[in-house]
Design a protein that fits this description.
Shape: globular
Structural class: alpha/beta
Number of strands: 8
Strand order of the largest sheet: 1-7-8-4-3-2
Oligomer: single chain
Distance between the termini: 77 Å
């Protein structure tokens, strides 16, 4: 029987879990240690903010919150690789990528505090807001990529989705459209091993998540998502390729969700301590720290000083969030219709009564 097609999925890694290089052909940006220090500082800032956000929720000052603990390398690598005019379509956890693109942490807190004004970003106004319906943001990004191609604009649309979301029909439809029309579209699959309480092994039979792009005709790659050098190198390559009219990519970033799915979840009910302990040994911060210290461009003193600055910057954002005046209850009705339907107007009137109590 003849073979009509075969495929291979390459795996990209530069920095091992022990902080040592596993290959010596470093990309150009990583050959300058100053670039790596700046990336590490951004990762530390995101972790500092994330810790404070969880604390706010635990003290009743924030609604349910989805921590990004362990995702720092994927977020910062994706966010710093993009140009301002590119479009980003996140899920609900890509804070690091959004912060480096200009979104203020206070806006993230507003969103999780139940205030829709958090989606009115200070960052690129053309980026999409957070997407809770799993996978639908992928289609939005594919649509933006189609617009870029029709207009002849050198812009790229980047969508992030989790390992669970990669099994949704929305994700497959976006991949198929991007391949069929050779769109400047990058599908980032953040494989953190758990789709809430469902392990990656139980929700897909694919050997890799990267290969899900093959059927659509996209360039596919699996990346160590805890290695900021590999993440950034993969994104730089895919963005250049898409911007030059060579089509889209599906990139699987293999990482781990070190936190609960959200603050409403207790991951101890479905995953073992040994698994989490092993994941901490592979996490992105420690390996880059070890590498930078080995290069003698970072020290414990440097880190202590930067952590203090991170706390200061995060506190400014937390205080700005806490000092934001709460909108009246009726605000939820104000931008829905030019004229409120009778039944909705009745709901608004009822809301006013409750607000007056």
């Amino acid at each position: 029987m003849p073979t009509v097609a075969t495929f291979e999925i390459e795996y990209l890694q530069y920095l091992g879990a022990d902080g040592r290089l596993v290959r010596d052909d470093l990309p150009e940006f990583a050959q300058d240690s100053k670039n790596l220090v700046e990336l590490f500082k951004q990762m530390l800032l995101v972790r500092s903010f994330d810790t404070k956000a969880v604390a706010l929720q635990r003290t009743g000052k924030l609604g349910t919150y989805a921590s990004c603990l362990g995702h720092e390398a994927t977020h910062i690598g994706i966010g710093t690789s993009m140009q301002y005019d590119d479009v980003f379509a996140p899920s609900y956890r890509e804070y690091g990528a959004q912060i480096v693109r200009g979104v203020k942490p206070r806006e993230i807190l507003l969103y999780w505090g139940g205030d829709e004004r958090g989606n009115d970003f200070s960052g690129p106004p053309h980026d999409y807001s957070w997407c809770v319906p799993i996978g639908t943001q992928c289609l939005h990004a594919a649509g933006a990529a189609l617009a870029f191609k029709l207009r002849g604009e050198p812009r790229v649309a980047v969508a992030c989705v989790g390992d669970g979301g990669s099994s949704k029909t929305d994700t497959y439809a976006a991949i198929n459209s991007a391949g069929a029309f050779t769109l400047p579209f990058i599908q980032c699959i953040i494989n953190n091993q758990w789709a809430i309480s469902v392990p990656r092994s139980a929700q897909t039979g694919a050997k890799t998540l990267a290969q899900k792009g093959l059927a659509g005709g996209l360039d596919c790659l699996q990346v160590d998502g805890n290695d900021i050098i590999a993440v950034r190198a993969a994104m730089d390559h895919a963005l250049k390729r898409a911007r030059n009219g060579h089509g889209g990519s599906t990139i699987e970033f293999v990482t781990y969700r070190l936190s609960d799915h959200t603050t409403a979840d207790d991951a101890r009910r479905y995953r073992g301590d040994e698994e989490v302990k092993a994941a901490w040994e592979r996490e992105p911060m420690s390996r880059l720290r070890t590498y930078l210290i080995g290069l003698k461009v970072w020290s414990e003193k440097d880190e202590a000083a930067w952590k203090e600055e991170c706390n200061r910057l995060s506190d400014i954002e937390v205080n700005a969030y806490l000092e934001t005046k709460v909108q009246p209850v009726t605000a939820m009705f104000d931008y829905l219709y030019a004229e409120l339907p009778h039944d909705v107007a009745a709901q608004r009137a009822e809301a006013l009564k409750w607000e007056a109590r």
